[in-house]
Design brief:
heterodimer; A: mainly beta; 5-stranded antiparallel sheet; 56% strand; B: mainly beta; 7-stranded mixed sheet; 11 strands; globular
């Protein structure tokens, strides 16, 4: 099992819809979690951190379930500009590795 | 302005040549990383360094080499031993993840093509 797994998509979603991504991780060691966004042919950029209690930033909500070892990202009222690849990222403390999932491609349709 | 700079943006290599990709950061980050990304794929870790004069192999280190002589610099050499080097290479830096989990900052990437 890969350390970080995501559904590669693509998710084709009409504008205004709500879309959810999940990501599972296999290592239960101390680590922290993030969602990054990557636009086509660009570098990844941090979208948001993921906290145990869940956190929200505008239309975006991230949640962490340590017992089931998955994190999620919810995008409400999706915009055309949300079209991108969303990367699930784990920062592993014991060896300072930053591990990326393969990403989930999202296409918002007008 | 603080940031991380990769150069060149585009690089063409003949088969059998070694090429070196530059990565410089002025964010005072201890940790630096090199990733490779192939079309439609995620980021795969090549090498990473937690401190000057030390580095570790990632998942796909074969055919690559690095050095970390200065905190600011982490160049990657793609050697002739790398059989399929055409890819998008991304360099990142961050404070050490074990310090509490903070974001990684990326350079704009280098697109390497073998001709």
């Amino acid at each position: 099992r890969k350390e970080v797994e995501q559904d590669p998509g693509p998710f084709n979603v009409p504008e205004g819809a709500t879309v959810a991504f999940n990501c599972t991780y296999s290592n239960s060691a101390s680590q922290s979690f993030f969602w990054y966004r990557q636009d086509c042919r660009k570098e990844p950029k941090l979208l948001m951190s993921v906290y145990s209690s869940g956190n929200e930033d505008g239309r975006f909500t991230a949640q962490l379930n340590r017992a089931s070892q998955y994190i999620s990202l919810l995008i409400r009222d999706s915009k055309l500009s949300d079209s991108a690849t969303y990367l699930c990222v784990v920062n592993r403390y014991r060896d300072d590795k930053i591990i990326f999932g393969k990403g989930t491609r999202l296409h918002i349709l007008p | 302005d603080g940031g991380i700079t990769q150069s060149p943006k585009y690089l063409f290599r003949k088969e059998g040549q070694n090429v070196t990709l530059s990565c410089e950061q002025n964010l005072n980050h201890d940790a630096m990383y090199w990733y490779r990304q192939d079309p439609g794929q995620g980021l795969r870790l090549i090498y990473y360094s937690q401190i000057v004069n030390d580095f570790q192999k990632g998942d796909i280190a074969e055919g690559y080499s690095v050095s970390r002589e200065k905190k600011e610099s982490f160049p990657l050499t793609v050697t002739s031993a790398q059989k399929n080097p055409t890819a998008f290479y991304l360099c990142a830096s961050s404070p050490p993840p074990r310090t509490g989990g903070t974001e990684a900052f990326f350079g704009q990437g280098t697109r390497l093509t073998v001709v």
